Amino acid sequence: MSAVTAPRNPTLRKAHEFRSEAQPIWCPGCGDYGVLNCLTQAFAILELQPHDIAMISGIGCSSRLPAYTKCYGFHGVHGRALPFATGLKLARPDLEVVVVGGDGDGYSIGGNHFMHACRRDLDMLYLVMDNRVYGMTKGQPSPTTEGDWDSQIAPGGTQLRTFNPLAVALAAGANFVARGYAGDPIGLTDLIVEGMRWRGFALLEVLSPCVTFRPEEIHWKERAHRRTKTVAKDRATAIADTLTEDELSLGVFFRGEEVLSGAEVRPNISLSEIESQFAI
What CATH number matches the domain at 27-277, 3.20.20.370, 3.40.50.720, 3.40.50.970, 3.20.20.150? Predict the structure, then answer.
């Protein structure tokens, strides 16, 4: 059973109790501040304790997030957060595994791991803070950057089609796919809670503005809006929705079938029993 289907701890916590003493060094106005606040609020709503949660990340601005919590944390190498989280969840199915990162880390060098994490459908939340740029390395276009976005690094734009993470996730087999916005704290907190309660792999794409290299994204607060369509009941319709709806529409696009967690499907075998099978 997923660790957040029912409270495990009688002592309720406040959101600030999940924050570490380390102070974020994101640029002023970065959307990742809002994501951090929503995450800790969600942890409190779910009545968790810091030791119930493992925060896993790769490389990038948003991947600094585990250091700003009191949860277990692992700051890994570029694009490899999901395979590490997969091993951790299999070894410790009792932990709530939350993977955080950015569009560059998750969809470029980590793109292959992203597809297979969707396919494996292990019980974890993958929260991707998408600012459509490589912010930490000074503004290179990322997989989700518009092809005509002009910059000093890519004059005239890359002229490439943008990567659609929601459609790819659905095609790869993900059963919970949603999009939130860092400037919508109530809506984003609700999506994080729902994603953590989901039994299986949950992708939560979060629009997180980079006001330093993409200052035009500050206008997302005027354009982002809640979805008006109902959540699709079949995968084909959900994929069509991700391809045709406004790129700033927020909410759940698909809920498929929930799966058994690793704790329920894994046989109860001790380490010594495994070792004995390889004895010569």
Answer: 3.40.50.970
Cα(146)–Cα(203) distance, rounded to whole angstroms?
A: 21
Q: Tell me the pTM.
A: 0.88
- The pLDDT of residue 195 is 97
- Whether the CB-CB separation of 110 and 79 falls below 8 Å is answered with yes
pLDDT at 7: 45
Count the helix, strand and coil residues of the chain and give each as a percent rounded to the nearest 5.
Answer: 40, 20, 45
The residue ranges of DSSP E strands in 44-161, in sequence order, are 53-57, 72-75, 96-102, 124-130
pLDDT (mean) for 7-13: 55
Cα gap 176→199, rounded to integer Å: 9
- Among 44, 43, 41, 38, CA closest to 54: 43
